[in-house]
Amino acid sequence: MALFPRVLTLLLLLLLVQAPLAAIDDDPSVVRLFRIEGTYQDHAGGGGIDPMSLLTGGFGPTRSFYALIDKIDEVADDDEIDAVAFDLSAPFTMNAAQLGELSRCLDRLAETNKHTFTWMESGNTPP
Asked: Which CATH number, 3.90.226.10, 3.40.50.300, 3.30.565.10, 3.30.43.10, labels domain 3-15+30-119?
């Protein structure tokens, strides 16, 4: 599990380094907020909380990882959205392959020159 904090830190640094500073102006900006939380699986099953994830220390509801990637890609292609914010303050879990795919997705988002912001209260790996 030592890989998770390194990859998460790398993702956050990529977002911060590649995000241009926003200029203050009178035009209202359209910002899309992504709240990353819960357990991400390649193809999430039914809704609700998985009792097995509660017993094994999982976090919240199971979510579809590829639905998240598709939504980020849609935002990257939407010219009406000026900025993207990621709220990482809630616990979430992703496997190493998903983190790699998320990194590539964020690279595609960075190529659109949209402003990106990330919020995270603290970071650690589950025991």
From this structure: 3.90.226.10
State how far the Cα of 89 lies from the Cα of 124, in Å rounded to an integer: 11
- Over residues 15-59, the pLDDT tens digits come to 555 555 555 556 678 999 999 988 888 876 655 555 655 565 555
Which two three-digit tokens encode residue 60? 């919240």
Give the separation between CA 58 and CA 42, rounded to whole angstroms.
16
Burial class (CB in 10 A: 0-12, 13-18, 19+), 52: exposed
Place of tokens 């025991």: 127
C-beta of residue 91 within 8 angstroms of C-beta of residue 37: yes
3-state secondary structure 61-118: CEEEHHHHHHHHHHHHHCCCCCEEEEECCCCEECCHHHHHHHHHHHHHHHCCCCEEEE
The reported pTM is 0.66
Whole-number Å distance between alpha carbons of 106 and 71: 12
